[in-house]
Amino acid sequence: MLGVIGVKSIDDLFVDIKPQHVPKSFHLPSGLSEYEVLRRLTELSLKNNVYLTPFIGGGYYDHYVPAAVGMLISRGEFYTAYTPYQPECAQGTLQGLFEFQSHMCALTGMEVANASLYDGGTALYEAMMMAIRITGRDKIIMDGGVSPIYRKILRTYTHHLHYQFEETPVVHGSESVPAGGQTSRQEIEKRLDKNTAAVILQNPNFFGAIDDFTDIIEKAHAVGALVIVSVYPISLGLLKTPGDMDADIVTGEGQSLGLPLNFGGPYLGFMCVKKQYVRKMPGRIVGETVDAQGRRCFVNILQAREQHIRREKATSNICTNVSLCALQAAIFMSIVGKGGLKEMAQLNLDKAEYAKQCLEKVKGVQVQRSWPTFNEFTICLPQDASQVVARMMDKGFAAGFDLGRYYKGMEKYLLVAVTEKRTKEEIDRYAKALAEVLCN
Amino acid sequence: MEIMDHYLYTKEHEWINIEDNIGTIGITDYAQSALGDITYVEFPQQDQEVDQFEQFVSVESVKAASDIFSPMSGKVIEVNQKLEDNPALVNKDCYIKGWIAKIEIKDMDESNNLMSAEEYRNYLESLEH
Amino acid sequence: MQLIFEKSVKGRRGFRFGTCDVPVKAQVPVKYARKDDAPLPEVSELDAVRHYTHLSQQNFSIDTHFYPLGSCTMKYNPKFTETIARLAGFTDLHPLLPQLASGEKLTQGALQVLYELEQWMCEITGFCAFTLQPLAGAHGELTGIMLMAAYHKAKGNTKKKYVIIPDSAHGTNPASAAVAGYETISIPSNKDGGMDLEALKSAISNEVAGLMMTVPSTYGVFESNIEEIARLIHSVDGIMYYDGANLNAVLGRFRPGDVGFDVMHINTHKTFTTPHGGGGPGAGPVGVNAKLEKFLPISRVIKKPDGTYALNYDYPDSIGYIASFYGNFALLVRAYAYMLMLGQEGLQQTTDHAVLNANYIMTKLKKHYKLCFDRLCMHETVFCAAFQAQRGVRAIDVAKFLIDQKIHPPTVYFPISVPEAIMIEPTETESKQTMDHFIQKMIEADELSKTNPLAFKEFPKTMPISRPDEVKAARDVKTSYFR
Asked: Which of A17, A25, C60, C481 is deepest in the core (most CB within 10 A)?
């Protein structure tokens, strides 16, 4: 091959890299065999404790994934392909993504979905930017019940841009300290004005409270503002859809749809919008069409909005999204199906309710009952929740997420998640362990 | 390339047809042919004020999005709603049925910055060489 | 093929979650409940397995076909990294665990992977610190530009307005700069494929915030004036951004951190062979030099004096959270495993063979296709179908011909500054035999363009579908089964 090219050595191919460019250092360990790498990584994986019984959620849940999902998504034809630039040899990916979009529309009651964004947090950021583009306004009202992680992300991205950002405090009833709860209508409404681009809400919110935002959405629309709702897909097996509430943009974290927790990623950001906004939506979108013979087929559409064509005028800078995760979610939703999703959601609801009843009986624990929840709820402890969580680890539980980490004044509050995977026996043991920790 | 005699033209291949103080604006045959099948026209807001040669519309085809610049300054008073359902009109009949927007012209003298049909024809020829 | 929704049969189930073992039947209050069940498909597990297996078979992929998609580095994704990424100790790890009081002890293995991967990346690129958080290359770009903005803000450089970008850049560069609030200045290329220095000089002003540059460029050309460009940009306190999309061309031979770049991103799905997944997930770690380190996003992984690993959020100058957690961990693990296996020598050979393969294809095809720049190339080579276009055969037609030959086409129409571009990147993992077969098919396409150019319009003929009507797709937008 060197002879064909007309050079003597491989080094001759690199003549453009001048001597002064040679790395100042390039010292890495020698390579290992496959077996050695596997052994090393297995050892590292065993230094992670995945054996605590998880009652922790915070937007990321320990749901069961049917075995077939993992098998199907592991097909090399799916995971070693790239973005479907040539539709004739990528119908597998394209149709799979079209089905994903359809699934998301079914779930959210919205008209249009895109083919995924990075994760729930960045999807919410994209939604906010989209609302700013559509309305030409620059004020954002964000409910304090939106995931604090998402709120931090939005803050980062808008820090150096000139948007007005208002976060509504989380208050419940007449309490003066934050205690979680549903969105405060009063706090939102007093901030709504003609400069408002969007109101950002979450359902269920970070405290687990479920809500019907129809009233807020109506008021926002009255001043020409859009409403973005971040949702938890599994809860939509039972909960009123954001489409029914007349939300304009819906985003969320799709991890619960068949993706492992994976220590934070890859996850699945999704976005659904009203049809009138489809051309303002960021990210890849798959559309239906026909081929030269009139056969139905699928292609990437509206690419003229995207960075590879529109460059600095694109709707977003996103290129790679998370196609494989979207496909995985599509397979999950197909296998679980209409009946399965409802059954799964109901199990979450029932088990969380049972856990509430058990924890209520633990001395010193106060379960927040003032608002309805899905599979996650807030309890108030007689002492600092983070310390309780630490001591529960020794008893074999990831007991929940201490809200004090993100909400000042809520140091005694613990967020507890109960999925369909938790058994009655595990819940009973959890309540017992908590009682032991609290009385010591 | 078809050119309308009594219209005025820009170097970016927009045309304007002035009747009294109303200017009807569209893109030329050359532009529609270069863009290919047009799939979407993004209109300006009603009552939007535009400056001469300011971008106020964008036109999308499958693989491109092009900015359209207003040939003259003025206020947008009407857009061609028919293009919403049928953007192909711009390809089929770019000078009559495929018009894009109408503006109320602010300064008639700006027409001096535009090309006549004859000048535009020469301009197109110069592009080919 | 039918959609899964069209295979639905009322009442059919693919999965059962089992009976409820708690003595509670709860109900969502009517006000908060959905009216009708979500209209998901009702299929059996077998229905779904056949459906998605058949769907997969409609894809070309690296596992099934040669995939020389220029600019995308479609190298083989070794299977052992899949095994590793699926270890339960990684997949079942909840991302909030290390944020709990004394929760770090639960995630020592994962944190060690992240920490060591950062160290490796530093050594490979010549930077002093990395964040692994960006979730894709473009996300890394945006992070890098935000670091640039934070730097200028801290320095009181209030006038910074522009980011300079060569015309050969990926579209993500200008888009990322724009999203971060900058305007862009595009610089044309010179006749050798490098940056036009005179144009750059005339664009330089105190309003320039920085420059984004891909090295080697998307033309597959190594920029010969890096030092001069860096000097010009630094003379106005601008930041030099290195787009690492083409890092596969320079491993062990060039480190951006050594020659004046201040910040970069790596596409792990390119250089470090994490699978492309039909369009993601990717990962876009960002490296910086000392100038920008304090602005890196939080959290950061640290190694404590006692040898344990921890997350540190205490960086007051940090730009903050750019992603929910610590990056696309399952991909980072794969990249780490790949690096461990290859080691120093293997990584260097990666680059050597990638460049050798690209030059081999370039040399063999340059008699038949017009070369964009007639000189040695790096890891990819850009042709244009100028000769063929004169016969009525465009780059897209050549691409469709290749599909019928069971070869995934190269990238076409990019870089956008090259009309009828055909951009070929074979990568190091392809054999001479595979490349020879590809070369032969490319030559056949050229021959056919002479003898029967009209034949191309019907390609591809052997696939489940022929060319789709993209105009119809864009005019009558249908994005879901339900509408």
From this structure: C60
Q: Is the pLDDT of residue A174 over 70?
A: no
Q: Tell me the CATH number at C459.
A: 3.90.1150.10
CA distance linking residue A177 with residue A170, whole number of Å? 9
Which DSSP symbol is given to C186? Answer: E
Domain count, chain C: 3
- Asked if the interface predicted TM-score (ipTM) of this complex is over 0.95, the answer is yes
Q: Which residue of A has its CA nearest to C267?
A: A320
Cβ(C339)–Cβ(C345) below 8 Å: no
The per-residue b/e assignment along A247-258, b for 16 or more CB within 10 angstroms, e otherwise, is bbbbbbbbbbbb
The pLDDT assigned to C111 comes to 98
Q: Which tokens hold the place of A34?
A: 């496959």
Residue A440 has pLDDT above 80, yes or no: no
Q: Is the previous residue joined to A233 through a cis bond, with omega within 30 degrees of 0?
A: no
Residues in C closer than 8 angstroms to A52, CB to CB, are 106
Contact C397, C457 (CB under 8 A): yes
Give the orientation angle of helix C329-365 with respect to helix A34-46, to 10 degrees.
150
Q: Which chains touch A (3 or more CB pairs under 8 A)?
A: B, C
Q: Is C313 exposed, middle or buried (0-12, 13-18, 19+ CB in 10 A)?
A: exposed
Fold of B8-128: OB fold (Dihydrolipoamide Acetyltransferase, E2P) (2.40.50)
Is residue A436 a contact partner of residue A395, using CB atoms and an 8 Å limit?
yes
| HSE value, Cβ hemisphere, 13 Å, CA-based, for C144 | 40
Say if the Cβ atoms of B62 and A310 lie within 8 Å: no
d(CA C382, CA A436): 69
Q: In the beta sheet, which residues pair with residue A253?
A: A269
Q: Which domain holds residue C368?
A: 352-475
Closest CB to A82 among C69, C126, C400 = C69
Enumerate residues 6+ apart whose C-beta is below 8 A from A19: none
Predicted confidence (pLDDT) per residue in A363-372, tens digit: 999 999 989 9
Q: What is the pTM of this model?
A: 0.96
Is pLDDT at C416 greater than 90 in this prediction? no
Tell me the pLDDT tens digit for each residue of C220-254.
999 989 999 999 999 999 999 999 999 999 999 99
C412 min Cα distance to partner chain B (Å) = 12
Tell which of A56, A88, A132, A251 to mutate to test the C interface (max C CBs under 10 Å). Answer: A88
A80, A305, A419, best to mutate vs chain C, most C CBs in 10 Å: A80
φ/ψ of C409, rounded to 5, equals -65, 155
Phi-psi domain of A96 (left: phi exceeds 0; alpha: psi -120 through 50; beta: other): alpha
CATH of domain A67-333: 3.40.640.10
Give the CB-side neighbour count of residue C73, counting CA atoms within 13 A. 27
Beta pairing class for A164-168 and A139-143: parallel
In this complex, which of A30, A47, A287 lies closest to C345 when CB atoms are compared? A30
CB contact under 8 A, A309 and B63: yes
| pLDDT score at B61 | 87
Q: Where are the domains of chain B?
A: 8-128
Contact A284, A308 (CB under 8 A): no
Residue C139's contacts (CB-CB under 8 Å, 6 or more residues apart) are A118, A122, A318, C284, C322, C323
What mean pLDDT, rounded, does chain C reach?
A: 96
- Please list, in sequence order, all residues whose beta carbon lies within 8 angstroms of the beta carbon of residue C437, skipping any fewer than 6 positions away: C66, C407
State residue B129's pLDDT score: 65
User: What architecture is the A53-63+339-439 domain classified under in CATH?
Assistant: Alpha-Beta Complex (3.90)
Closest C-alpha to C432, from C351, C359, C369: C359
Extract the tokens encoding C175.
């888009």
Nearest residue to C327 via CA among C80, C109, C101, C140: C140
